[in-house]
Amino acid sequence: MSIAYNITACEPVNQQIYRFLRQDIVTCAIHPGSLLSEKEISTRFSVSRQPVREAFIKLAEAGLVQILPQRGTFVRKISARQVADGRFIREAVETAVVRRAALEASPQTLSEMAHNLDLQRLAASRLDSQRFLLLDDEFHRLIAQSIGCALAWETVENIKATMDRVRYLTLSEVSPPESLIQQHEKIYQGLIQRDANAAACAMQKHLQEIIFSITPIAEHNASWFEAF
């Protein structure tokens, strides 16, 4: 079941609805193949249909929904091809970023990353998958921030929505948080040692994890995936 979200005045309504629906889709609270109703969602958030429509368009651009004229808006099934393509692009971007970060990351940012790792361990110990994934994203965002390249993380965020659904599904079976934390720690060690090669190799290995996890996840959740 989806979480109750509250609309605030701190950011545009359509952005908030997009973010809330994206979270529900990524965590499979809204199942692949589901029909999204503009009317039901506008009622859920107590808003007009226009911001909901705008959120649907943004979700479509992220590859999470398909808008079919006269039929409605459907949550896309997970595409293994999209996951593979997204991972390839993400690896290229983040490997380049982490190489620079090994040389440029400030002590303050490295301290923030260490704190983030502590919070990851806490979330894992509490079996809080949603909190863990948010901290995982924050860890990677801090690396991009450390080289002053916000566009790098924006690019990654725009292509990883489909990957995120697989990431969430793998946490309980294939890639438990503890193993991902160990991979993050290796990236962090490369950064604090100012070893660009070690940091880049650790990042590559970390982002390749999904290659090995997608097949068993697709087999266990066949109805949620597009045919191979």
UniProtKB/TrEMBL annotation:
Keywords: DNA-binding, Transcription, Transcription regulation. Residues 11-78 form the HTH gntR-type domain. The keyword Transcription applies. One of its GO terms (molecular function) is DNA binding. The keyword DNA-binding applies. PROSITE patterns: HTH_GNTR. The lineage of its organism: Bacteria, Pseudomonadati, Pseudomonadota, Gammaproteobacteria, Enterobacterales. This is DNA-binding transcriptional regulator, GntR family. Gene3D superfamilies: GntR ligand-binding domain-like, Winged helix-like DNA-binding domain superfamily/Winged helix DNA-binding domain.
